[in-house]
């Protein structure tokens, strides 16, 4: 076989393989976190921010929203998760960071006053917003995303623990559920996911 024919055959074979691979592709984007698009409802709540003002998802429309439940007296999961989110946001490209809002929803409204919640989130990152509200509204929101929370018995000083989910929910700029992240995920992988969502919204 001539060199020309061998080259032509190789090119045809390569083209066929490429076409086969393209045909097998489902067209979906690659995500490092768990893709839960369409599995849960769109983002919806009516809560209060650290200034005591009523907040709804429309107030941050167009932003990629990251939702995490917790409370300021949490000894471990909450501070480590918020520190993780700070580092993730830092690793995002500079031109995408301002299109991210992290919503830290306190499920301990008895202790987490707006002032206390404001001081707490300010310690971590300016992109993190503290929210809380009446217990019934918080339970409704938790149930909406298939989780719950509970209060332990108070000690002699009145202190108590709050059990809650450690899941990190990610919604796109239209408020649609997209991803579920965990803080044991490499920070750069989470940053890549958030940046991809931002750019997808802007495209």
Automatic annotation (TrEMBL):
<feature type="signal peptide">
    <location>
        <begin position="1"/>
        <end position="19"/>
    </location>
</feature>
<dbReference type="Pfam" id="PF02630">
    <property type="entry name" value="SCO1-SenC"/>
</dbReference>
<keyword id="KW-0186">Copper</keyword>
<feature type="domain" description="Thioredoxin">
    <location>
        <begin position="34"/>
        <end position="203"/>
    </location>
</feature>
<protein>
    <submittedName>
        <fullName>SCO family protein</fullName>
    </submittedName>
</protein>
<dbReference type="InterPro" id="IPR003782">
    <property type="entry name" value="SCO1/SenC"/>
</dbReference>
<dbReference type="InterPro" id="IPR036249">
    <property type="entry name" value="Thioredoxin-like_sf"/>
</dbReference>
<comment type="similarity">
    <text>Belongs to the SCO1/2 family.</text>
</comment>
<dbReference type="InterPro" id="IPR013766">
    <property type="entry name" value="Thioredoxin_domain"/>
</dbReference>
<keyword id="KW-0732">Signal</keyword>
